[in-house]
Amino acid sequence: MKHNLGISVYPDVSDIADIKKYIKLASKYGFKRIFSSMFSVKGSKEEVLNYFKDLINYAHKYDMQVALDVNPDLFKRLGASVEDLSVFKDIDVDILRMDLSYGGEKDYILVNNPYGIKIEFNSSEKIVEGLLKAGAKKDDFLICHNFYPQRYTGLSWDGFLEKNKKIKSLANVKIGAFVSSNNNPTHGVWDAKYGLPTVERLRDLDIGLQARILLASGMIDDILIGNAYASENELRTLSETIKGYELKKDMPIINMLVEHGILNLDYPRIIKINPDISDDISNVEREIIFNFEPHMALGDDSEFIWRSRMSRFDPDLSIKPRENEKKTFLPGDIVIVNDNYKHYSGEVQIVLKDIENDGQRNYIGKIKNDEMLLMDFLEGTSIVKFIE
């Protein structure tokens, strides 16, 4: 599944010239979506429409789609209705993001508009249920989480995952979520000063890590930066982050796992981890950690370790034992089985619960404290890619 990146722009806060510079810069790094709030912009009907027509035309020059946040009050201001979206067609908008749902039947009418305008709804299993009951298909509409300007008001991590799980169980619809730029200063809706993420506990993390955590869930398709303006380095970081979430489909082990129903290539759960690596690991160990693919579990979970077994099947592989003063390996430690247990030598493991250092494992490094949330996904057939 291809992941799209997006930015957010705020015409009621920022000058159009600065917005256009930002759009051009984001397009340089492969960003494909722009979110903006249409109902927050003041002015006459003609002024509002002319403004967004100009912005949309400019975005299309850089192959970017524009999603406009709309609500029933704005529909009245512009003379639009559920049955008539012609005013939005006239400005060539790509996506209308409904701040409020009209209910199943009317939402279905919106989705089936004759202009091909994609309709995006707030994340809600009730909205999805209503659309499906009315006859909509999963590819007919989009879902996107909200963002939260106030500290401590963003979604809980468990609630976020549960909501996504319910939606995906109803229909494998595309879901978007917001991450937050740490550039200073930034702006957004309602005098936002503390970032604009979807999930509260991600608010102050590095933007690349925010994205890696969302993508590790296997349920988020599009990632948008909620506040503006992200730095060029943050745009570059996100662009690099979303690469490598697709598997090499020509690999025999991948084909075998797919054939046996163990792996779903459409939504593989891939976890990218940037570990603290020990200074004394060997070149062979480094090669296994960073260049072997795929590091993955096979579904028979242990409560003590997450195991990637495929890396041990090279008959010429040798992992020399190394001394380590650790008597106990702790959760988040990364180890490789050494030649003291030759049959398993080369197997990569991540420790989930304290285990004894019995001399059969070499300490490689550990998952950083900020990244420990990724441990939540080390289960089933999760795939790990270690990055430097």
Measured between the Cα atoms of the first and last residue, the distance is: 24 Å
Measured as a percent range, the helix fraction is 25-40%
* Secondary-structure element order, N to C: EHEHEHHEHEHEHEHEHHEEHEEEEEEEE
Side by side, the strands of the main sheet go 1-2-3-4-5-6-7-8
Could you give me the name of the CATH homologous superfamily of the largest domain? Aldolase class I
User: How many strands, which pairing sense, and closed or not: the largest β-sheet?
Assistant: 8 strands, parallel, barrel
Overall number of strands: 18
Over the alpha carbons, how many angstroms does the gyration radius reach? 24 Å
Average pLDDT, all residues: 93
Number of helices: 11
What's the domain count? 2
CATH architecture of the largest domain: Alpha-Beta Barrel
Strand content: 15-25%
Coarse morphology: elongated
Protein structure class: alpha/beta
CATH topology of the largest domain: TIM Barrel
CATH class of the largest domain: Alpha Beta
Low-confidence runs (pLDDT<50, min 5 residues)? Answer: none
Question: Would you mind describing this structure in some detail?
Answer:
This protein has 388 residues and is an alpha/beta fold. It has two domains: 4-241, Aldolase class I (TIM Barrel); 252-386, Beta Barrel (Cyclophilin). It contains eleven helices and 18 strands. The chain has helices at residues 16-28, 45-61, 72-78, 86-90, 104-111, 125-134, 157-170, 207-216, 232-241, 252-259, 283-291, and strands at 4-9, 33-37, 65-70, 95-98, 118-122, 141-144, 175-179, 222-225, 270-273, 276-277, 295-296, 305-308, 328-329, 333-337, 348-351, 355-356, 361-366, 383-386. The strands form four sheets. It has an eight-stranded parallel beta barrel with strand order 1-2-3-4-5-6-7-8, surrounded by four helices. β6, α7 (157-170) and β7 form a beta-alpha-beta unit. The longest helix is centred in the N-terminal third of the chain and has 17 residues, at 45-61. The model has no long low-confidence stretch (mean pLDDT 93).
